[in-house]
Amino acid sequence: MIPEDPSSYPFDISLIIVSFNTRDVLRESLQSVERERDDLRIEIFVVDNNSRDGSVEMVEEEFPHVRVLRSEVNLGFGAANNLALEQAQGRFVVLLNSDAFLCHDSLRLSVQYMKEHQDVGLAGGRLVGRDFSWQPSARMFPSILSDFLVLSGLAYRFPKSRFFGKFDRTWADPAQPAEVDWVPGAFSIIRASALKKVGFFDPDFFLYSEEVDLCRRIQDAGYRIMYWPDIVVIHIGGESSRQIGPMEISSTGAQLIRWRMRSTLLYYRKHHRAKAWMVKMLELAFYHSTALRNGFSKDPARRERASRNRNLACLLHQAWEETNGGRVSPPRPWKLN
Predict the structure, then answer these.
(1) Which of 143, 105, 138, 166 is nearest to 226 (CA)?
(2) Per-residue exposure over 257-279, b if at least 16 CB sit within 10 Å of its own CB, e if not
């Protein structure tokens, strides 16, 4: 890698938070940034995705130095970050969820490690809940095999196996740094020169898979993706999602699952071409077999499981049609309807 000229950047960090109706946790997130900024030169952006809860007014009143970029529509995660990335002037870009809070020394260590490792294009830290329980923080790229292991439940039955636990690296010691394929978008630090080389987020991914796609492009450009565990970030989103089972079907939940399916198909078609069809058939086989296995049971819980899986199969068929098999992204903003 060509050594960077630090003097060409007016800021050490351009920190970007995307917010959509998250006023109270957004305040807490910004407070954590203020505590951890130290002597770093930081510019802070909040990109608001057309919130209706007073988020913008709160930021303008309580954090007047923060640059607020308003969108008239919900752009999703990637495209909203792109609004700020177009204006960012930092040597490094830090992406932080509005429901994520920096712990002690997280910013300082992030910059230090990126300076020490010029071949790292993007890195993440250890994500934890408010109770400091571990959340998946360092992952490997999706594959037909890893999807099967997750869908079948084998990944959860044998988390300490290098084979079965490969996707979330549940076998690994979370206290050890590692080179990985991708890190969750709740927190990451990105080398600005790497973004200049590969481009920003692909706006086709409205929600889900956008960080996976970006990490793959950065890796393909010759950079490494790193996980550094002593950079600790509290992420309450992980706690919230654990309260909703991964197969939960409610009105809103069904739409979000369909969005996940859309993004999965878009990702596979973009990076693996015909494997988009294979991942569709794998999921459908799992949903139909589970529905068949439980559909004739007298146990109400098993019959409910059969119904959920039939619904999931329908959602996947819809996602396949809406994306033309992963070839096109539906018009933004994707809507909950």
Answers:
(1) 138
(2) bbbbbbbbbbbbbbbbeebbeeb
* Residue pair 123/188 in contact by the 8 Å Cβ criterion: yes
Query: Residue 104 and residue 312: Cα distance in Å, rounded?
Result: 42
Average pLDDT over residues 309-334: 95
16 - beta bridge partners? 45, 95
- Cβ distance 235 to 129 under 8 Å? yes
**Rg (alpha carbons) of the chain, rounded to whole number:** 20
> What CA–CA distances, in Å, run from 285 to 41, 94, 211, 256, 276?
52, 40, 27, 21, 14
Q: 277-292, pLDDT tens digit by residue?
A: 999 999 999 999 999 9
Q: How confident is the model over 142-160, as pLDDT tens digits? A: 999 999 999 999 999 999 9
What's the CA dihedral at 227, 233, 237, 243 to 10 degrees?
90
Q: Could you tell me which of 207, 200, 324 has the C-alpha nearest to residue 263? A: 207
**What does the DSSP 8-state code read for residue 244?**
S
